[in-house]
Fold this sequence. Notes:
It is a single chain. The protein has 180 residues and is α+β, with helices and mostly antiparallel strands. The protein has one domain: Cyclophilin-like (Cyclophilin, Beta Barrel), CATH 2.40.100. The chain is built from 3 helices and 10 strands, in the order E-E-H-E-E-E-E-E-H-E-E-E-H. The protein has helices at residues 23-34, 132-139, 171-179, and strands at 2-8, 11-17, 41-47, 51-58, 84-87, 100-103, 124-130, 143-148, 151-157, 162-169. The strands form 2 sheets. Strands 1-2-7-5-6-4-3-10 form an 8-stranded antiparallel beta barrel. A two-stranded antiparallel ribbon has the order 8-9. The longest helix has 12 residues, at 23-34. The protein is globular and about 40 Å long.
Amino acid sequence: MQKVRLQTAAGTVTLELDADTAPLTVDHFLQYVDDGFYDGTQFHRVIRGFMIQGGGFDQSGQRKATRAPIQNEADNGLKNDRGTLAMARTGNPHSATAQFFVNLVDNNNLDFSGKNSRGWGYAVFGKVTEGMSVVDNIAQERTTSQRLNGMLARDVPEVPILITRAYRLDSASEEEKGAQ
């Protein structure tokens, strides 16, 4: 299992990615991580009792340019349970690019139920293994309506919560961390 660490303004979150079950999604996400794409992006959509979403807008609220969307892998058997990581998308089931979200509760309504416009769901590709309390704290931030990329958006934190750095954890760094 590949691990990624998100250093945020609110604390550190460690993610474990499931490449066996969602290989396209994990590879896609890791390309963004390796490119430094998420560094300086914000959690731009925060809804208590639902999820926190990030990975699309810089700290000034401008949309970042992304690569082409990927095929939806929500039919992989993984569920949108509390603490899982999933790809955000538009109404088109195969439109996920860089934005992701962490489920704050079990969101069964976001799970795959069929290969049709209403049933595709949202592809889960990992989970939070450390720092769920950080995620929960982000979810408690006050939100408002603000302009993102020139358009009015709801549920935006009043004070931007940035991902300052996103990077892979390898086995060597895990061992070093344990030795400290």
